[in-house]
Design brief:
This protein has nine helices and twelve strands. It is an alpha/beta fold. The N terminus is likely disordered. This is FAD-binding FR-type domain-containing protein. Pfam families: NAD_binding_1 (PF00175). It comes from Aquilegia coerulea.
Amino acid sequence: MSISLTSSSLHLSNLRLDAHYHPSMSILRRFNLRTLNRRNLNIAAAAVRQDTTAWTQAPLSTVDQAAESLFHVKIDVSDSPDLISSHTRPGQYLQLRLPDNEKASFLAIASPPLISASKGVFEFLVKSVSGSTAELLCKLGKGDVVELSQVMGKGFEIERIQPPEKFPTVLIFATGSGISPIRSLIESGFSANKRSDVRLYYGARNLQRMAYQDRFKEWEATGVKIVPVLSQPDDAWKGERGYVQNAFSRAHQKFDPLSTGVLLCGQRQMTEEVASLLTADGVLNEKILKNF
C-alpha cells in the first residue's frame, strides 16, 4: 500500500525554524528550503508524520494460519477505546510495529467496525513476507505485545454507490491479502441483497493461498456471488483460471455502466487494468472505489 503526500501537507510558513521546535527539524535542515521540489516536500512531510505518530501498545489474542503464507491475526484493543472509535469505515488501515523494531507495516483492518467495537478486537489478514515486520508478527503468539498507530484512511466511500436501487450492479475485485478490507466491507453490509447483481472476483495463485473460503457461504447469503479465480490451479480445478480482470472480460457480463459501482483492492496492475476496462465501458470514475 502506498500513501502519497502532496506539498500542501507541509506548511513551511507555519514552522518555527529553530532547533527547539521539533526533533524532525534536523531532517528538514538537510533540504535547501528555497529549492524544495515536490519530491523533497513529500520526503520531509513523511519524516514529520513518522515522528509524530502516536503508538498504542496492545496484546495479541491469536495468530492462526489462514492459508499458505497468510495468517489471521487478532489484537486485543479493548483497553484503547479512542483507537476503537477511530475505526469508522470498512477499508481503513493502520501501521503496526513491534516494540523493539521501528520498521512498521501498513495493514488493512479485516474486521467490520461494529465487530471491532463490540468485541474490542482488531482483526487482520497478514501476508508473511520474508524479512518484513509482517513475518515477525506472524511468528508471535497470544499475549505478545505490538504497537498500533491511529486508524488511517478514508475507507470505502460506499455512499457514492447508494442507494442500492440506483446502483443495482456492484463489481468487486480483490487479489491475495487484498481480500482483507473486502471482508470488512461485506460483513459490514452494503445492501447487497437489495441489489440485482453483486459479484466478487477474488484472485489467488491456488486454493491453498485463498483465505476466507470458510466464509464464502455466509457472504453469498448476504447477496454477494463469489467468483474464485486461480492463476496457477491444479488439474482438478474446474473454475475460472488466470487473472481476475481476464475472468471478468470472459464473462461478458451485461450491465448498465451508469448504474454500476466498483470496489478494488489488491495488486496495482490489477486495479489499474480493471479501472481502465470499466471506464472504457462507461462506468463513472467516481463510482470506482478504493480504500486509499
